[in-house]
Amino acid sequence: xxxxxxxxxxxxxxxxxxxxxxxxxxxxxxxxxxxxxxxxxxxxxxxxxxxxxxxxxxxxxxxxxxxxxxxxxxxxxxxxxxxxxxxxxxxxxxxxxxxxxxxxxxxxxxxxxxxxxxxxxxxxxxxxxxxxxxxxxxxxxxxxxxxxxxxxxxxxxxxxxxxxxxxxxxxxxxxxxxxxxxxxxxxxxxxxxxxxxxxxxxxxxxxxxxxxxxxxxxxxxxxxxxxxxxxxxxxxxxxxxxxxxxxxxxxxxxxxxxxxxxxxxxxxxxxxxxxxxxxxxxxxxxxxxxxxxxxxxxxxxxxxxxxxxxxxxxxxxxxxxxxxxxxxxxxxxxxxxxxxxxxxxxxxxxxxxxxxxxxxxxxxxxxxxxxxxxxxxxxxxxxxxxxxxxxxxxxxxxxxxxxxxxxxxxxxxxxxxxxxxxxxxxxxxxxxxxxxxxxxxxxxxxxxxxxxxxxxxxxxxxxxxxxxxxxxxxxxxxxxxxxxxxxxxxxxxxxxxxxxxxxxxxxxxxxxxxxxxxx
Length: 519
Prior knowledge:
The chain is α+β, with helices and mostly antiparallel strands. It folds into 4 domains: 9-227; 232-242 and 251-325, Immunoglobulin-like; 341-411, Immunoglobulin-like (Sandwich); 416-518, no CATH class. The chain is built from 9 helices and 26 strands. The chain has a 5-stranded mixed beta sheet. A hairpin with a 2-residue loop joins strand 17 (387-396) and strand 18. Residues 18-27 and 224-231 have low confidence and may be disordered.
């Protein structure tokens, strides 16, 4: 066993402890000063961001004035980002002012070592006070709204925004010991004033940086889109509009641009020497669309000049093209308006025509097919048919030409049961369960079907199931009583949903059940 320390050794040990404590105190003061200097730099950087962002936004406004069709959506999204960012930035500024109001000398960072004011504003014994919850909601709402404004091409920026304004999983994070804490508690509880203020400034910096990234993404995406090859199409350049059998073909493939920004300022064209009027010419996505008759059989010439504005100067582009009108079409064009199959039991709209043949000289026949007017038909396949063959006959110059096409016949899909237009597993309060309308939904099905739920079975845990006649739980006193006896967290099952489809002649497939967790 070691001998007891002498009085002199005890004094030395005590001096060492005092020295270490003094070093720790000095180090703490230096850290507070460091936080203050960092806060000053962040605030200066935020002011620079504001100038840069104003310039980027002004550029978007200028682009929208020049090319409204190209930049309208980008500018509208940017306006929303600007509005959200300014509101959130101002909110953070107000928080900083409240915290800094607790000290007289705003630049003596070494005395800003208290945390009681912010702790009292944000936290209660367990959880967050309203102001603390508002702080958490604001950062979550800002992040989510910005992400919702971005398109599928902006996954990288989405990931950056989600990381910058992350509040952990379900607003909780783990500390260095592996213990789970609320995100606000982890980042702000017990922190000195100047540390909290610096963190607020850092979020403000992230807001301005994100705003800048968004503007750049909008400008960059549109500039890239303007130069994208998707605005070009291949054109066949040839010396004549038609060729004879075994004649040498002298055509060439060239690129042509087609988008709204490639719009001529003036169009002067003639067809076979006759000037075309404004009503005969339409500019669509950079294309000069001609609304003229093909005329008699033979070659026709389109000539003239297109004038484009380039750097404030009109630049002429000469036009000299030919096309040939030929007789006698030999095949029909048949298409289902909504899909490449037809569905039994419902009315399938179809368009059937034959190029070059008047609609009055075209007939189509198939089981269940009937004509409405012109090229418009409706198909209602016979029950049990797996496919249907449509035969089209056109009459031209006294001769008949026939063509046919087969379509698969399918049943309408199985619908999903839904309450308050929500399918699958949902969470609702009892009042919503009682009053909510039960429906069925044909998701990802292009036909507009009118449906009505006629009855269903409801099962509340610990109680016998009840069959309800109607489309609301409240339609049955027994069902309503069972729901009212349900406890929070109980899972209510709605199944055996019987429904009808207006105008449907088949037997509907059973709808999927609905699962409701009581809140």
